[in-house]
Amino acid sequence: MLASGRPNRGIKLSSLDGLEKEEQPEILPFTFPLEVKEGQPLQVGCTVMAGDDPITLQWYKDEMPLQSSSEFMINSITSRMNMLIIQGATSEHSGMYSCKAFNPVGQTGYSAVLEVLEKPDILPFDFPSEVQEGQLLQVSCTVTRGDDPVTVQWYKDEKPLSSSPQFMINNVVPRMSQLILQGVGSEHSGTFTCRAFNRIGEASFSDDLRVKEKPEILPFNFPKEVQEGQLLQVSCTVTTGDDPVTLQWYKDEIPITSSPKFMINKVDSRMNFLILRDVSAEHTGTYSCLAFNPFGQQRSSGQLWVNVPPRIIPFHFEEHIRAGSLVQVICVVGEGDSPIDIRWTLHGEEVRPKLGIFTQRVGERTSILSIDQVGSEHRGSYTCLASNHAGRTNHTETLWVNEPPEIRPFQFEPELLSGSDTQLQCYIIQGDPPLHIAWYFHGQEVSHVMGVSTMKLGSKSSILNIEHVTHGHAGDYTCVATNRAGEARYSATLVVHATIQFAEPPRIRPFSFEGELTSGKDTQITCYVTDGDTPLTIRWYFHGQDVSHIMGVSTVKLGSRSSILSIEHVTHGHSGVYTCVASNMAEPPLIVPFDFGGMDLFEGGIATATCVVSQGVLPMTITWTFNSGFLQSDDTRKIHSFGGRMSILTIEPLSDFHRGLYGCSASNRAGHDKIEAELIVQEPPLLMPVNFGEFEVYEGDSVQASCMARKGDLPMTFLWRFQGALVTPSTIVRIVNLGLRNSLLSISSVEAHHQGIYICEVTNAAGTAQYATDLKVNEPPQTFPIDFGSDTFYEGDFAQANCVLRKGDLPVMFQWTFNEMSLLASDSVEILNVGGRTSLLTINPVRGHHQGNFSCIATNAAGSTRMGASIIVNGICCIGSIWIINTISKSWSSPVDFLKDYYFFLVMCWFSFSSSTLCQTNLLITNNCYITEPPQLTPVDFGELTFFEGDLAHATCVLRKGDLPIKLTWMFDGKELFDSDDIQILNVGRKTSILTLDPVQAYHQGTYSCSARNDAGTDLVETQLVINGTEVI
Question: For the Ig-like domain, which residue ranges apply (predicted)?
Answer without folding.
Answer: 25-117, 120-212, 215-307, 310-402, 405-495, 506-591, 603-680, 685-778, 781-872, 935-1028
